[in-house]
Amino acid sequence: MSLRTESLPGEDMRDRLIIGLDISSVEEARGIVERIGDAGTFYKIGYQLAYAGGFELARELIADGKKVFLDLKLHDIANTVEQGVRSVARLGATLLTVHAYPQTMRAAVAGKAGSPLKILAVTVLTSYDDSDLIEAGYAPVSTADLVARRAGQARDIGVDGIVCAAPEAARVRAILGPDRLIVTPGIRPAGAEIGDQKRVVTPADAIRAGATHLVVARPIVKAEDPRAAAQAILAEMSAAHRA
Q1: Does the annotation count 73 as an active-site position?
Q2: CATH code for the part of the protein at 11-242
Q3: Which of 202, 197, 105 lies closest to 160, judged by CA?
Q4: Domain locations along the chain
C-alpha cells in the first residue's frame, strides 16, 4: 500500500479522523485501506481484527506511514499490563486503550515510558447507559458521573487522554484541561443508523464539544464508496473546526 498525495478538502483533519477497521478479515481491511487512499491516515484495530491477523496489518500500516490506534482495552494485573504496553510501544502504534481503573492506568503509564506511544483510558463504553451501570452494580452512580470520576483519576495518574462518548466530551475537557486527548467513538453522520451505540453524535457536534479525535467505523468501512464517505466526514469536521 502506498500513500497518494493529491490535495483533499479538509486534509488538515485527516490525523483527527480515526477509521475503525471493525471487520474480521485482514484482506478485506487491506482492500478498504487501498480504496480510502490518502483520505485516511489513521486506523483503529480492535479485537475483531486484531485476533484475525490484525497485528501484522498494524505493522504494515505503520511501515507505510499510517498511524495505528490499537483498541485493546487492556485490563489485568499491573505487571501484565505494563509488559503488554511495552510490547505495543515496540510495535510503533500511536494510541493504545486501557480500562480506566487506577492500577491499570498506572501500569500502562509505566509501560510506555520512553516511547511516543500515547495511552487512552476508556471510561464507560459507549454502548452503556445508566441502566447498564445499574445492572453491573454501579448504582447509584450515573454514566456521566462515572465518566467524570475516571477522567479525573486518569488526569492525576498522567494518562495521555480519554475515550468517552461525545456527549461527555465537554465535561471531560473541563476536567482534563486543554492539552490532553479526547477520543470519541460512536460517531454517526446525520441520518446514519446508530447500530448498537446508545450515546452518539455527529462529527461536527463532537468537534464542537472538544474532541481531538473521532473514531468512525461502519459509516466508512460499510459504505459503497469508503473514500467518499471519509471525505464527507472530513469536510464536516473541517467546517465545525472553522466555525
Answers
A1: yes
A2: 3.20.20.70
A3: 105
A4: 11-242
